[in-house]
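Known limitations

Files may contain more than one protein. Parsers should not assume a single record per file. Below, a two-record file is shown to illustrate correct handling: read the sequence, read the token line, then continue until end of file.
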Amino acid sequence: VDYSLTWTCYSGKDVPCLKCGSCVERIEAFEYNNIRDPLINKKVWDKIISE
């Protein structure tokens, strides 16, 4: 699956909000599977995961 073509955020913006329930669950799923969400740039992803 090309996850860069998938979208779960409810904000309707150009980038995921990273705060809504869908974004949180998506982040958790990608983190659990040890891969970075392709919709989130590496710098932001690293910051999210380190928190």
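...continuing to the second record:
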Amino acid sequence: MKNKLYFKLKNKKVQEEAFDAICEEQKTVGYYSLPEQDISSILSYGESISDAIENIAVIGIGGSSLGAKAVYEFIKPVRKLKRKLYFFESTDPINITNLLSKINLDKTHFLVISKSGTTVETFAIYKYI
């Protein structure tokens, strides 16, 4: 297999501007510092969830829910989990209704995830529920 670039990197100024833009983004976008982030407040929050809660409903679109789903699917076969996770990732009312039929709302904790905080589809699902 041969690796090949299909665009030319001859323009040094474009390269420098792209590098500078990435460095600037690194200062403001939170996920670059995730490996060093203090998660004690997250762990404390998780421990505060009542034992009566049987389900976690994750509401998010695309990358907002994919990370949680990937970790859940990876861990699920090898570890006994305290709660079942349900992923509301589509605005399709049939999909939402199907998922809702599987859970008791009184025994479900909802996590609404939106990186921007303004994802219309995420809030549409939340409002529908």
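Parsers that stop after the first record will miss the second one. For reference, the second record is described as follows. The radius of gyration is 20 Å.
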